[in-house]
């Protein structure tokens, strides 16, 4: 079964669930349920058209009157073309060709969503499927008409609609032409300047593939409210987050995968957990980000503006100190600021003097609260931190590397996946060092200035994270390898008789991956 036929079959059965006694829809469903017998047979029944039922804020419906005919006019619509991915796409294309209205000028109705408002027979032989659409903006009703195809665009009251079945459905509905949210998303923050974002799958046909965004989704019939919608979506997509207190924050407009305007209700809530144990079921990963890093990410402008708006209201817009770890577990860096120390000084899992949070969340220690790797039933906790009286730099880096490797291994991550996340962490730390330099130079008027001591702390985080990365990738000879690489650099840039030592190729190391 083709994707167009399958999509149409789903729509017709959804319509029949609401109108089980309608014969045109029942006959169409029977035709779509039957197998397509011979190769080359029509994928869709003959004489099938798709129309746009566009409703404005005065409860009027858009009608067209062509140059070649008179009468009261008709709804914009037509037959499916080869490039139309869905029945709704056909209606939107025909509407654009005849009126100039773009998909972004329209939105689905909260009452019907993408389910047709009417399936009826015209001229005794062909079936038309109508989709109800609201104008997204008042100005759209004045869109220019293409004079080559249409002589007049008329807005007619529900009483003037020609189709008796469509007219009855319009009168029996609460459709008023006003756009309302049909989706809900959660803007989750940790109370210390970090925001939880989801990396979406990079798959064709979904909204914003491969981009970062908020957790959430569309309203379903069982949802009594949009608050129910966002709670259900969180439970489905990241069950480890658990129930949260959520409050309405804003309504934003985004562009859906079909080009339509989609109003989204945004809720805010506070959660300070480890993104790696949220149990993500959709998308690629979850990660905590500070607002200054958003300009380096692929995400919609509306998401970026939401984060900055909330951060400004919370007074955390320029904060770079609170850190909540990597996408799959604790990171190697810690918060910075006046008096802040690196995690190597404090030991893994403890808080620094001026930190807002540790790698597992603000103001907590890994394993001290439900939901962390050590506090979750069935999870394998990382090894307890070793705290000798005195420790060398190499020994501290080794302990950190062992801890994070054990944590990620318990999560089922392969060595290559672990290395990838750790190297990405270097990039995050580098970005925060760059933001600190901008703050120290005072070149961003939106941000409060910082001291060069904070730049030093951020650079130290970059170095520590890089050293831990190398130790995790080369646990047996990281120190020797670093000395060899340093000798190579010294021979290149420093005068003198320094002779670089040969480095051992990765493939020659015992236990190295091919």
From TrEMBL:
Requisite cofactors: Mg(2+)
CDD domains on file: NTP-PPase_Af0060_like
SUPFAM superfamilies with a match to the protein in the record: Nudix
Pfam families associated with the record: NUDIX
Skewed-composition ranges (Gly residues): 328-338
Biased composition (Low complexity): 370-379
Protein name per UniProt: NUDIX domain-containing protein
